[in-house]
Design goal:
Blueprint (H helix, E strand, L loop, with lengths): L8 E14 L4 E16 L4 E5 L6 H8 L7 E6 L2 E2 L5 H8 L2 E4 L13 H11 L8 H11 L16 H13 L5 E5 L7 H18 L2 E5 L3 H7 L2 E6 L2 E7 H6 L4 H8 L12 E2 L27 H5 L5 E3 L2 E3 L13 E2 L1
Parallel strand pairs: 3-8, 3-9, 6-7, 7-8
Antiparallel strand pairs: 1-2, 1-4, 4-5, 9-10, 10-13, 11-14, 12-13
């Protein structure tokens, strides 16, 4: 991973708004701001972890990049190509270079087709290899994901959840993509299987030079696989830094609260504080003024309601907070 080169994926002020309509004439009453002015760079061979609570907009970012959701504003630049506003036909060659792995592997596989038929169809439709090489290419891909080529004649329901996710990964790999967007790709699996799939992702990255946008809510998985982590809250990126800095020196109060719930082998030895946030996450259609986290932040002051904090970079560590908050500043029960 080199951040001196141009990013493989760049998001510039990305917005995804959903109109809420009301009345007989279906006039737009307000907008649900699922993603609100997000800018991100992801570099070749990097894994960027994207974390946050359910409904914060992290999956919407992945779907907007793939054009499964329509962006309301901003730019999506992939390998130097501005793909914002591309039609489905314009996206077809782009989809060969970027693929998405979903949370539920069963729903992304045709239950009426064998594994071999599914992979063969992908290779044929997109003309990835000559017809004479399809069978050997399928065998190669299945070997990459740790399945015996003998499974080609079996149907999705004959596999375990972990095996089905491997097949979903194989389906994505038929396109020989450069970017994989993993949307909660391990959250539906047992913990032991999650570890195996994470190892598979790491192995594939080393062998194929893949780049990942790894979307998850589990900090353990994100810590293990990510080079950098972006933390989202209510449609905004509130902190962005290398993984080791996020865990060693979190600067945003929301990130600090998330990490306080992250399990460690011996929490008492670290004199950790249990940080319990007050209130509920506000609606993305009625977000607070200024800092969106201020309604749940014990350090909020007048400026937090009046001015939205910028995501400012300091030596590769970015945080969107008006103040410098330390973990020891929190009032909480010692764990």
């Amino acid at each position: 991973m080199s951040q001196t080169a141009d990013p493989i994926l760049r998001l510039e002020h990305l917005k995804v708004y959903y109109p809420q309509r009301d009345g007989v004439f279906s006039r737009i009453k307000k907008y649900v701001k699922a993603v609100d002015d997000v800018s991100l760079d992801i570099f070749s061979n990097e894994t960027l972890g994207l974390v946050g609570e359910s409904g914060c907009g992290k999956s919407t970012i992945g779907r907007a990049v793939m054009h499964l959701e329509e962006a309301s504003a901003g730019k999506i630049i992939f390998e130097g190509e501005n793909i914002s506003g591309y039609s489905r036909s314009q996206m077809r060659p782009v989809w060969k270079r970027m693929q998405m792995i979903f949370q539920d592997p069963y729903s992304s596989l045709n239950p009426h087709k064998t594994v071999g038929n599914t992979l063969e169809e992908m290779l044929l439709v997109h003309h990835v290899v000559p017809r004479s090489s399809i069978d050997s290419e399928i065998n190669r891909i299945l070997s990459l994901i740790g399945l015996n080529p003998g499974v080609k004649g079996r149907f999705p329901h004959e596999f375990s959840g972990g095996q089905r996710q491997r097949i979903s990964i194989a389906k994505a790999l038929t396109m020989r993509p450069k970017l994989l967007i993993c949307d909660e790709a391990i959250s539906a699996l047992d913990v032991s299987i999650q570890a195996q799939i994470l190892e598979l992702f790491k192995s594939l990255q080393g062998k194929l030079g893949l780049t990942y946008l790894f979307i998850a809510h589990g900090l353990g998985a994100v810590k293990y696989i990510s080079d950098r982590i972006a933390v989202m809250y209510l449609g905004k990126i509130v902190e962005l830094a290398p993984t080791e800095l996020i865990f060693a020196d979190p600067r945003h109060p929301y990130t600090q609260a998330l990490l306080s719930a992250y399990p460690v082998p011996n929490p008492r030895s670290r004199n950790r504080k249990r940080i319990v946030l007050s209130g509920q996450v506000p609606s993305p259609s009625d977000a607070p003024s200024g800092c969106r986290f201020r309604t749940r932040c014990p350090f909020a002051q007048n400026i937090c309601a009046q001015e939205e904090p910028e995501l400012k970079d300091s030596e590769g560590h970015s945080s969107a907070c008006h103040f410098t908050i330390r973990r020891e500043d929190w009032k909480g029960e010692t764990a």
